[in-house]
Write a structure and sequence with these properties.
alpha/beta; Aldehyde Dehydrogenase, Chain A, domain 2; seven-stranded mixed β-sheet; 41% helix; 18% strand; binds nicotinamide-adenine-dinucleotide
Length: 456
Amino acid sequence: MKTYSSLITKQKSFFKTDKTKNIVFRLEALQKLRNAIKNNEKTLMEALRTDLNKSEFDAYTSEIGFVLEELRFTIKHLRSWATPKKVKTPVTHIGSNSYIYPEPYGVTLIIAPWNYPFQLAVAPLIGAIAAGNTAIIKPSELTPKTSEILGTLIREIFPEEYIAVVQGGVETSQNLLNEQLDYIFFTGSVPVGKIIMEAAAKHLTPVTLELGGKSPCIVHEDANLKLAAKRIAWGKYTNAGQTCIAPDYLYVHKRIKQEFLQQFTETTIELYGQEPLKNPDFTRIVSETHFNRLSSFLNDGKVLMGGKTDKERLTIEPTVLTDITWEDAIMQDEIFGPILPVLEYDNLTEVIEGIHRHPKPLALYIFTENNCIQEDVLTKVSFGGGCVNDTVYHFVSPYLPFGGVGTSGIGAYHGKGNFDTFSHQKSVLKQTTKFDIPFRYPNVKNGLEKIKMFIK
Ligand code: NAD
């Protein structure tokens, strides 16, 4: 069994030098990362094309550009985020001042999945660096080219005692988890999330778990159907549906179902062409195993749109399945592919009850013009985050911390949330030595009565 104890010891020693805590050091590291990404833009795009057939447009908007924007935002705000904050002090503590010092955890481990293999490894790295940690990244083994480029890029700008990339699959990940780390940031599936938490529990290591699940998308009878169709088709079929927050399934109101699905079909053709299997820019399915798993769902319900596959190129058409019930195979787990099952409803209560019978989703989308209905769904259903009248877009705002709830995840990141996730909030009371309020001591005359004047 390979151990990573020497790498982790090196990072621990480097962390103890306190260099990573220096704000100028952190800002320079973030700037270096930004420059390296800009200089490697073309190579990264080629790697993403090789691994997943991502178009340049998708590679830039959802991976490279996203990370550059996170870097810009973090560099701009880092000094203010990292400054200890003075907070209020109660009257019982007269003479003292209270502060919160954000402090780095130390050696962090970032484990990333394959669906956005660059972004999901680098975005948490930005948080780790910003907060003053060292980091080890374990990228996905299923996107070997992107993982390799990431490894080279990092090696060229950072020494391994500060930031290291360790390549490998499950075994590598497990060997890393056997070590005593200071923080684990994991993005991936729910079953593996449980394994990560179990490993972290052995050392009481804090974790962020960015997981998945079935994210519902509701189209109510009063929705703007044209826009709903376009925004849902984009959110579902971008990256061939291999997006953790893609709408997993649709709940469409009976009254507008036919009209909506007609709009949806037309929009999907506009976005991806009459023959999406021949579209050179349509993302492919990551592996044959996933291709076979997804293809088997095409037997569920009735194919309303799409349904064709190309095994050689591992592509599946944007597909809509109707006549679906919760008993169908496609409704048992997260789909993670370009197949959209449709359930219909009469009454929103059915929808809310249907969602409540299943684990808390990572995302939820509701399309309606009615504010009361929006608020009703937002207050009654627990989910990680989501949109009203849009899909996926909440993910790209640095002001909205991104994460799950229940089985869809623990913790959140992006923007200041990223810095906060990788920082321990250290509470500090600075007491005066000019005087000493006596009430707390047990030998004060009438002490209890005096204390009771403050504590009512
Ligand atoms: P995965 O859980 O199979 O793998 C993720 C990472 O964990 C990989 O680096 C892999 O090598 C490692 N790993 C796999 N099995 C392991 C084990 N037994 N022990 C230790 N490490 C192990 O996930 P995936 O297939 O790469 O990604 C798809 C999943 O990720 C989907 O469920 C999706 O919803 C989820 N996801 C979530 C987010 C989010 O931000 N919440 C983003 C993207 C993907």
